[in-house]
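Running this now, will post back.
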Amino acid sequence: MRFNNPQGLQETTSLSRDPDFMKLWVGQSISVFGAQFSPLAIGTIAVLSLNATPFQLGLLTFLNTIPFLLLGLFAGVWADRHRRRMIMVIADFGRSLTLLSIPVSAWLYGVTMNQLYLVTLVAGTLTVFFEIAYQSYLPTLVQRSQLVQGNSRLEATRSTAQAAGPSVAGFVIQIFSAPLACLADTVGYLASSFSLLLIDRPEPVSGPGPRRSTWHDIREGLSVVFGESRLRAIAGTTATFNFFTSAYGAIALKYYYDNLLMSPEEVGIVLGVGSIGGVLGALLAGRVSARLGVVRTIVVAAALGGLSMVSVYFANPADAPFVLGVALFISIFFVLIYNIPQVSYRQALVPLEIQGRMNATMRTLVWGTMPIGGLVGGTVAQFIGVHQTFGLMAGLGTLPFLWVLFSPVSSVKEIPPGS
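Update: finished.
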């Protein structure tokens, strides 16, 4: 497999002058803002209304992310064989209808844990197809020299939405109800669908050729990632980090509500404050990458991304909002400093025609650990307690950077030419 020359990731023409990128950007801005409501709403329904156990919360995380492990590779082949933009449109519309079922059910007869299981599973399945098509679509919409610029803008918007969304969601849940808060997701996904439909630029697809089997294409995607040591190390770092964050994330709301005695308003505000770190990280990722080099930035940010969350284990109800806010701010800041260069790096390393399979393989590896982590976290918490499990998993979450530290990624300052 021959890799593209990954040089030229510096910013050139401003994407603000590109109307099709702006349509994608605006639609995703609305969508990601709305998408901040349902995770807090569903978790609040489960913990405060249905009194879910740690194992049930772990199962929710498992069902929401298991489609990436089971379907990710197939979704990558699908994304390379079909129009990625239409895959995104259909997935957004489907997620909108799925989440609409929660407020409708609450109005008619009430929400149950079984319904939350089903909604998270269906929404998670649609998210697999959207996310893989989404990451593979951007390189067809902008020039390769604009990838860092495009990813930085999209991630800055995502981080801004993550900063404002949870705070607003917390107030909406407190004043109205958690089920009604899910309506924001419905509106956001619909807005994304319509903005994608308005894009005029034709999407390139693979030319005619011999029809290969799905398994052949899956093997090709696997060979791209496992055959390239730099991609392999990044996959290991991200997958391990996601495992531990999912393990303590599955029980996080129960820890905040029951152990730290926080209200939905406080949790929403703290999540918003933490996400401001993501805004700052997205805005500074390009500058940090230019100063340290894209590859070195990946290593440094991976090392610092998980450290701050250990402090939350030592929080108490009196100082919990402050400690959690600072910890989330620092953690999310470095996650964004890590994510933008590594995604741009991956996109620049491989040809356009196999972007879907590469991204699907990476997503399967790095998101495939999340359902396992969620289930492990919920199960362990069921036996040793929520507080102890949170501290254990947060502590182990400081180690994933070792993958990139002891790999060829750490030995260079800039992205080397493709072979």
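DSSP finds 17 helices and no strands in the chain. More later if anyone needs it.
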